[in-house]
Design a protein that fits this description.
With about 325 residues, this protein is of the alpha/beta class. The protein is built from 15 helices and eleven strands.
Length: about 325
Amino acid sequence: MTDPTPTIDVHAHLLLPEVEEAVAGHPGLAEARALDARRNGPAALAVNGPMVGARVPRLTDVSVRLAAMDAQGVDVQLVSPSPSHYHYWAGPELADRICRSANETTAAHCAKAPDRLHGLGLVPLQHPDLTAELLDHALDQGLRGVEISSHAPGRELSDPAYEPFWTRAAETGALVLLHPFGCTLDERLDRWYLSNTVGQPVENAVALSHLIFSGVLDRHPGLKLIAAHGGGYLPTHIGRSDHAWRARPDALGCAREPSSYLRRLYFDSLVHDPYVLLELIRVAGPDRVLLGSDFPFDMGTEDPLAALRAADLPEHHFHAVRGGNAAALLRKD
């Protein structure tokens, strides 16, 4: 019997020329690009430009996006701005303008196909006092929540300054997609695209560990947080965190074993290995993993359903990850 649940991809991106126009010419942009160049290295930058350029139509044109979704067998996308639009270097006034522009433009994009596209906006993590207000702005546009990176300059996600943001996200039921951009290991990862292949999983693991060990998830049990890239290295190495929690008094920042919090988070399925996906489902639960493709970038998957089928899941788990879990998460109460 065919399962009627739509296939929902929760990890798909959008380019926002309006945001790039807003930041053009600012000194902070040049500094940020120089840092990005050091972190990625010249070989990666030489590949990235043409790669993104070839994908601009899918990143900006709704009709092209929908045709690509049809080819993949995807019914619904949760669309978030490309993480390159975070611009966490920006001052308060510019950051406010960036986020409002991103929220409004993303909402307008999704409004062209409201039955198939849901959107996430941005908040400026570098200005914690603005995050709750701009989360509300995103929700007011009809977006389902916001996308954030793993940290802001000088601030981890465990910083007490973010408490109003977490509180508001939990109160409103907003989705928060944790999607790193950049890695603080910097030039150590500047060859062979280690900045992404190693850096992104590291950033996911560090950010989630801050949220778990600091008690953020204890204080805000209603948070609907989705970790991109399967949560990085943390789910497959969570036993080490549990051991530290049991063995060391300085690791007792959370109320229960760290592994228990994985079942209160959500994770996308983009791990590029069926055995890793099976382990993610084992530790987080089949109701906590969502289909994700990183559409349309080259570090994603062109065929997310084939990647999911490769794990040879029981049928009910397959359909839960394919769309059932995301449908429940996106359902408005």
